[in-house]
Design goal:
The protein is mainly alpha-helical and 109 residues long. The protein folds into two domains: 1-36; 40-109, no CATH class. The protein has four helices and two strands. The chain has helices spanning 2-33, 41-55, 69-77, 84-101; strands at 62-63, 66-67. A two-stranded antiparallel sheet has the order 1-2. The radius of gyration is 18 Å and the shape is extended.
């Protein structure tokens, strides 16, 4: 029974990986048609690098390992709710999750 469950989980994992590739390929194709070179988590990496470059200017202690939970909580607890650091944190977390999950990062507004 355990062998069957493992095989089933492996098949699901492979199906999800295939679906993710198909979605990423479709998104990239649309982005190229719109004049962008690539979309997806590559954008998140680029934005993350820009955020890291300005973190010190906002007084945000960002190490090579990223933002600590304590520093993130301090920013999150600060009032008023939407100061520059809170916006930085929101975009930083979006980029971190997009990069970690290999999903597209889209900005709307």
């Amino acid at each position: 029974m355990e062998g069957l469950a493992f095989h089933f989980r492996l098949e699901i994992h492979q199906m999800i990986a295939t679906l993710r590739r198909q979605i990423t390929d479709a998104l990239n194709e649309k982005c190229i048609k719109l004049g962008f070179s690539k979309c997806g988590h590559f954008l998140a990496r680029k934005v993350s690098a820009e955020l890291a470059a300005v973190a010190k200017d906002f007084g945000i202690p960002l190490s090579a390992r990223g933002l600590s939970d304590v520093a993130a909580q301090e920013i999150n607890d600060f009032e008023p709710l939407f100061d520059d650091r809170a916006v930085w944190l929101l975009v930083y977390e979006g980029c971190r999750l997009a990069t970690m999950s290999l999903v597209a990062l889209w900005f709307a507004g």
